[in-house]
């Protein structure tokens, strides 16, 4: 039975390349045409494959419907939360999870630090979009026209001397983040707070959420926080793999530096 399931599943990658006839399927599987036909008929009955008028087979609508339903029912917060807790237990600092929705970047989860100093951030609260590490990660993944359109509409409040001052600087920042695959906010929103973050990707490689670790200067310096970047990226990668159900290649990046 396991061999039958394996053979049936092996048909799907073949048909993902385009329609194929019975002989092509049999050759790919290394089986007799009668065996391939039985497998195709069963998949056809369940709507997983579809037989065209020219007798070739392609992936069926039911497969796409199931995939879409699965994606819609995935909750990145539920998947990410245990990983965020583990990261918090490892480093002790505040951990955030954020998504981009309706032109805002929102925190959807937060694990508080283990020390008395608390951050004012709250679940459901929009982040400071022009400076926050999670915002940079989410916006950097958008297309160039989308990034430019958003950057030109934003206000650029100078929270501190290290805040992003204008659209040109913001676009340059996003380009850098897009290339290196991680981001920081080193005193851009609050002089005393530093943050380093990494993206969470779906099966298509697109960024679906972003996570970060934040800490005040009185606890760790910016340089000390940046040493956690490999751990933060490993955590984001682990969430990405679980969310997408596949291995996601991580973009290469140089040594830690301010983003």
From TrEMBL:
PROSITE patterns for the chain: HTH_ICLR, ICLR_ED
Source organism, top-level taxon: Bacteria
Boundaries of every IclR-ED domain copy: 62-245
The entry's keywords: DNA-binding, Transcription, Transcription regulation
A Pfam family this chain is assigned to: HTH_IclR
Segments forming domain HTH iclR-type: 2-61
Stored SMART domains: HTH_ICLR
Protein name, per record: IclR family transcriptional regulator
Annotated organism of origin: Streptomyces catenulae
């Amino acid at each position: 039975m396991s061999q039958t399931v394996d053979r049936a599943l092996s048909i799907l990658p073949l048909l993902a390349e385009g329609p194929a006839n019975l002989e092509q399927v049999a050759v790919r599987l290394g089986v007799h045409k009668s065996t391939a036909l039985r497998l195709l008929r069963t998949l056809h009955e369940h709507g997983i494959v579809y037989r065209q008028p020219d007798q070739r087979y392609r992936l069926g609508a039911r497969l796409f419907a199931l995939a879409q339903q699965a994606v819609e029912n995935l909750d990145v917060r539920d998947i990410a939360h245990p990983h965020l807790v583990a990261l918090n237990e490892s480093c002790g600092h505040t951990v955030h999870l954020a998504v981009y929705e309706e032109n805002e970047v929102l925190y959807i989860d937060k694990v508080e630090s283990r020390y008395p100093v608390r951050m004012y951030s709250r679940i459901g609260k929009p982040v400071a979009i022009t400076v926050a590490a999670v915002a940079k990660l989410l916006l950097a993944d958008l297309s160039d026209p989308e990034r430019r359109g958003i950057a030109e509409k934003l206000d650029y409040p100078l929270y501190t001397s290290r805040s992003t001052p204008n659209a040109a600087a913001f676009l340059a920042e996003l380009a850098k983040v897009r290339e290196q695959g991680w981001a920081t906010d080193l005193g851009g929103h609050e002089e005393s707070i530093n943050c380093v973050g990494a993206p969470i990707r779906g099966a298509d490689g697109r960024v679906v959420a972003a996570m970060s670790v934040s800490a005040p200067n009185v606890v760790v310096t910016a340089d000390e926080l940046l040493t956690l970047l490999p751990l933060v990226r490993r955590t984001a990668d682990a969430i990405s793999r679980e969310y997408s159900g596949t291995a996601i290649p991580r973009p290469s990046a140089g040594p830690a530096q301010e983003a």
